[in-house]
Amino acid sequence: MKKTSLPTGMHDKLFKRARVMYQIERDISDLLMEQGFNRIETPTLEHFEVFSDTINASNYNFFDKQGELLSLRPDITSQIGRVIASTRVNTPVKFSYSGKVFNYNEEMRGLANEHTQTGIEIVGFPAKDALQEAILLAKEALEVARLKNYQFEFSHAAILQTIFDELDLDKDLIEELSTAIRDKNITVLHEFTKSNSSEFDAFLKELPFLFGEATSVITRARNLVQNSQVLAALDDIEHLLGWLGNDFAQVTVDLGQLPRMPYYTGMMFKVFGEKVPDAFVSGGRYDKLFERFGAKKLTAVGWAIDVDSIYQAIHDELSDRGGAR
């Protein structure tokens, strides 16, 4: 008997869900092209090195007939880095895209392993201007997708990267500290500072509490650290939020936000809502991606919208016409 069950983490999308997700993807893609972003489509399969220097267990990896190790793409930004490095695409350039991405989650977590993304990359433009344009465009894209209640959350990759670089930890300790930060584990962070004392002890101990209303978080953080690079990153966050002003009334900061991808180098942001635990949008500045492919260093800012999460958030407000969910 042939199998009728799906692989773990894969789901059929029928009727209303398929129709609405298509409309969301189409409407955001149309908006981006109207704003002057060049459409790009990249292959679903790539050599695994495009996405990681080492084999990543969360990626879908397999060998082709020639024995080459391939990956189903876990993100599209890395592919665009490969395109710019390996073709004659002239920069500065603005790209928009949409497509499927694949990330393996543990079976017991019950999470989807296939997601539809749509996003942008702004490459080679002045970083400040590119970041502002990207954030405003993310807000406009969410409005086009009919998402009503959401909140931007900002952080800066240089904060934790500076701490990790200064501590000069081995691989196991990096994983231990990263997990404690991600889980906001107060006990483990306190124990870590006892055995790995540094100028960042006070900051690391308070890190689980350094999230929330922007002004109070930044003020508190400045009193906990004297490192010039961390202080400069806090200044970056403050200046950006000052520029955003009243158009972004609901804004929070999380200084313990770990980069979604290892290539982030500057300001990062996510967008959350009440009905969905995952971020609707993840993005930020990444200037070192292209060097991985042998290209020159380029300023770059981008974001990706998770269309599946958008659908979940607006599901209850949709009409029942068009079939079941």
Could you explain how this protein is built, in words?
- With 325 residues, the chain is α+β, with helices and mostly antiparallel strands.
- The chain has a domain at 157-272.
- 37% of the residues lie in helices and 20% in strands.
- It has ten helices and twelve strands.
- It has helices spanning 15-34, 77-86, 127-144, 157-167, 171-182, 186-195, 201-206, 214-222, 228-244, 307-314; strands at residues 38-39, 45-47, 60-63, 69-72, 93-102, 114-123, 151-156, 211-213, 251-254, 267-272, 281-285, 300-306.
- It has a nine-stranded mixed beta sheet. Strands 2-4-3 form a three-stranded antiparallel beta sheet, with no helix packed on it.
- Strand 10 and strand 11 (281-285) form a beta hairpin.
- Helix 8 runs antiparallel to helix 9 (228-244).
- The two termini are 29 Å apart.
Question: Helices, strands, pairings?
Answer:
Layout: H1 15-34, E1 38-39, E2 45-47, E3 60-63, E4 69-72, H2 77-86, E5 93-102, E6 114-123, H3 127-144, E7 151-156, H4 157-167, H5 171-182, H6 186-195, H7 201-206, E8 211-213, H8 214-222, H9 228-244, E9 251-254, E10 267-272, E11 281-285, E12 300-306, H10 307-314
Parallel strand pairs: 1-5, 7-9
Antiparallel strand pairs: 2-4, 3-4, 5-6, 6-12, 7-10, 8-9, 10-11, 11-12
Helix pairs in contact: 1-3, 1-10, 4-9, 8-9
